Amino acid sequence: LPGLVRVIRLGEVDIEKLKVVDLLIVGSPVHGGRPTPELEAFLMKLPSNCLKGIKVASFDTRFEPDDHNIG
């Protein structure tokens, strides 16, 4: 995907600017199978259908060395 790439902290996201996004990637640590309360609150504030037509991906930033036979 050619074009502008921006990395934005969750607290700095302007939901109105999502209208011009082609791809949204969200990363968060996961605790007890849930994203952080801040990310969950952000997702709940998104208006219905505001991500329609936007490709979306997410990833978990948690890493445990023991889970990967490291250390």
Structure commentary:
It is a single chain. This protein is α+β, with helices and mostly antiparallel strands and 71 residues long. 13% of the residues lie in helices and 23% in strands. The chain has one helix and four strands; from the N terminus they run βββαβ. The protein has one helix spanning 37-45; strands spanning 23-28, 30-31, 34-35, 55-60. It has a two-stranded parallel sheet with strand order 1-4. It has a two-stranded antiparallel sheet with strand order 2-3. The longest helix is centred in the middle third of the chain and has 9 residues, at 37-45. The chain starts with 22 loop residues before the first strand and ends in an 11-residue tail after the last strand. The model has no long low-confidence stretch (mean pLDDT 85).
Order of helices and strands: EEEHE
Low-confidence blocks of residues: none
Average pLDDT for all residues: 85
Question: Strands of the biggest beta sheet: in what spatial order?
Answer: 1-4
Structural class: alpha+beta
- Strand-residue proportion: 15-25%
Helix content percent band: 10-25%
Q: Can you summarize the main beta sheet?
A: 2 strands, parallel
Distance between the termini: 37 Å
What's the Cα radius of gyration? 15 Å
Q: Please give the count of helices.
A: 1
Give me the oligomer status. Answer: single chain
The total count of strands amounts to 4
Q: What gross morphology would you assign?
A: globular
